[in-house]
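Entry for magnesium ion complex. Fields follow.
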Amino acid sequence: MRQNHYLSPTLRDVPSDAEVSSHQLMLRAGLIRQTASGVYSFLPLGMRALKKVENIVREEMDAAGAQELLMPAVQPAELWQESGRWDAYGPELMRFFDRHKREFALGPTHEEVITTLVRDDVKSYKRLPMTLYQIQTKFRDERRPRFGVLRSREFIMKDAYSFDTTQEGLDKSYESMFEAYTNIFKRCGLDFRAVVADSGAMGGKDTHEFMVLSSIGEDTIAYSDTSSYAANIEIAPVISKYENSDEKESSLEKFDTPQLKTIDELQSSLNIGKNKLIKAVLFIVDEKPVLALVRGDHEVNDVKIKHFYNAQVVELASTEETIKYMNCEPGFIGPINDSQEVEIVADKAVQYIVNGVCGANEKDKHFKNVNPLRDFSVKEYMDVRFIQEGDASPDGKGTIKFAEGIEVGHVFKLGTRYSEAMGAVFLDENGKTKPMIMGCYGIGVTRVLAATIEQHHDEKGIVWPTSVAPFDLHLIAINMKNEEQKQLSEDLYNQLKQSGFDVLFDDRAERPGVKFTDSDLIGLPIRVTVGKKAADGIVEVKNRKTDEVLEVSTNELISVLH
Ligand code: ATP
Ligand code: MG
Ligand code: MG
Ligand code: MG
């Protein structure tokens, strides 16, 4: 490809709205441009790299026996009503009407569509198992799109779905996707870890996330320094911290409260989103345990409180509503004190301070429809906390360490959640009707690309792993006005292409400094420079990653590059 007429605009300055390296570099190297908030265009260089990732994903999916199909981005509301997710999914689902006033959504995921496809055409155990996948555009109206294509609203996902007749079958399908994912992320040159994840919202059981280790990752992983234990801290065990009070301990022991052992267990019965849990406070209320979780993404301003009362989420109410409900003066609902104790201010009031981080007495963060004394009285409280660095690993092997991770893939045993709701059944050997047992498996293809750059760059630019580089090499003619250099570089361009290399040929009439800076920024694995020694048939070959430089005679070039 000749760079002179190639849409690969590079930027010298770091765009002010790009906070992380991959976002900055994808803009600066001319891979992407923002079209709307969280919505991006891929320019030719970005598109080529994206295709490389897609092909790796496709090859590994095909090798695992999965079948590629393509489902629509536009999905009718009825499908989502059938599965029960139309109301449950919330504002991430982008909804709209057509001219006939029928309601639709832009697919954030495709369980509904795939389940109806398989339901309508597969009836017998003889046709199962099967795993189907697509590589397609998803839309999620993220609350806070950021970091470029790492968290965008429109993005490309590879999503696969398996259909089995038995639990053992599902285990096998899952295992095979797990292996394929491991191969994919290895081939992309990523340093990653598979971690046990949160199965709350999807209503299934086993689930793992594939996390690319990176300090900008939005998830935290707790892992053992000696064993294979690794979990998203969202589900890592909660450890109780009794402030050396025997009394508190014994009062807690009275309750049979297995749901307090892990967040996973708590969440499995509750449909809680994926925000990071940062603190939990346990209240003993009317001799029953009540756990208040203070949750947030990263910033304390975002903190929300979810309060579990007999395993029901207590909704939050606005200050205005609460004032009405309590029939009190507006000023009454204000900060109480810094105490960690639960305070009961009036018989109808609900006023908590939760560890001083965020309280129900903050503006618009009041618990709804909870009436102390009528609903409960407060007897005891204690702190519980999530597993921390330095704790013993839950598997008894080694010590817990923390790392930040970017979730690039997610594998999930769905079970019969969708097949039961949507009637995807088959006839077994004995002619009995049974729901299909499903799994779902996602990879954020555009996110993988950004995560790759996050792990592979230096101060000068991107340092592409060969497997996903948009071109194999960058051919540069230092001076296109010099007849010898021009001729030699044109010849080499043709020869290299004929030998099977993907070549980006900088044939622009730019100064050498500009060309080298752009070349480092774009970061192709190899640079071949045609300069002063062109007359002697000698070029320079430079390795972007190691900075190694070789002078090579043109008739040896191809063999050196191989
Ligand atoms: P996250 O926790 O980052 O919001 P998720 O758990 O909601 O992701 P899944 O529903 O598991 O995402 O989707 C499968 C994969 O799709 C994710 O592992 C991730 O790689 C990718 N993905 C999800 N949301 C986005 C997004 N907003 N932008 C880019 N990729 C995304
Ligand atoms: Mg997630
Ligand atoms: Mg999400
Ligand atoms: Mg996920």
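NOTE: The longest strand covers residues 400-415.
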